[in-house]
Amino acid sequence: MEYIRLNNGVKMPMLGYGVYQIEEKECEQCVSKALDVGYRLIDTAQAYLNERAVGQAIAQSAVAREDVFLTTKVWVSNAGYEKTKLSLEKSLENLQTDYLDLVLIHQALNDYYGTYQALTEYYQQGKIRAIGVSNFYSDRLVDLAEFSTVTPAINQVELHPFYQQKELRKIMTEYDITPEAWSPLAEGKNDLFNHQLLSTIGQKYHKTAAQVTLRYLTQLGVVAIPKTVHPERMIENFSIFDFQLTENELEQVAQLDSHQTLFMDHHNPEVIKELTKLGKIETMDKLQVKGDFPK
């Protein structure tokens, strides 16, 4: 495993296991298997409705809590200073822990300034080791970074070979904010798993197109959190640190960037309207994990 130092000095694994859209009954088993494989970064969210399963898997694992880098995210309906604090206490209870390694603001919607104030307070109290954001594009990221006492450590966004967020990553570099990729394998879109270039590069190293993709991202300094419920894929995704892409190969993969999202455009007012509808659902258990839910 390779690690990256966040802007506050905290060490974070470059590769983790994401549990987006894994229902609670299956999630505990999946996280347990991921920990057995060797994953030490587990990424969940309040809106995924599987925090309890993640917490149970970690509690029952032979892996010590301090060796697991545990991330959750505050959902839009819990935005604002007071509601965020209440939601954090619930997340701590669900995850069976007295501290969190990383907490992100899930979407740049509602009172995210109040949310960040609460995260900052918990960070300063030592209840959270690092704080950051998710799905923040350059304008709102700069706004938050400029007017906060604690610069976000992470910005988790859609990032894969077909949408590489190069301009946003430049801004993140300026503020020493580490990029983290959700859907790093693009959920197989654009036939990623059989992509000619990625597969050809992989043949040289006896690796798959998926492994080449994950190695590409980690070599760029991007934390990746692929999700799968298949143990053999967990092992495959984890086996990426025994080879290194050349500069020429990195340049070739860089050319795959279409500069367009494959999932949702956060600059589109209609997309924001749909997200705000979900953000106005006050009871978390009414949210649906399946379907086109925001990551």
TrEMBL record:
<comment type="similarity">
    <text>Belongs to the aldo/keto reductase family.</text>
</comment>
<dbReference type="Pfam" id="PF00248">
    <property type="entry name" value="Aldo_ket_red"/>
</dbReference>
<dbReference type="InterPro" id="IPR020471">
    <property type="entry name" value="AKR"/>
</dbReference>
<dbReference type="InterPro" id="IPR036812">
    <property type="entry name" value="NAD(P)_OxRdtase_dom_sf"/>
</dbReference>
<protein>
    <submittedName>
        <fullName>Aldo/keto reductase</fullName>
    </submittedName>
</protein>
<dbReference type="InterPro" id="IPR023210">
    <property type="entry name" value="NADP_OxRdtase_dom"/>
</dbReference>
<dbReference type="InterPro" id="IPR018170">
    <property type="entry name" value="Aldo/ket_reductase_CS"/>
</dbReference>
<feature type="domain" description="NADP-dependent oxidoreductase">
    <location>
        <begin position="21"/>
        <end position="256"/>
    </location>
</feature>
<keyword id="KW-0560">Oxidoreductase</keyword>
<keyword id="KW-0521">NADP</keyword>
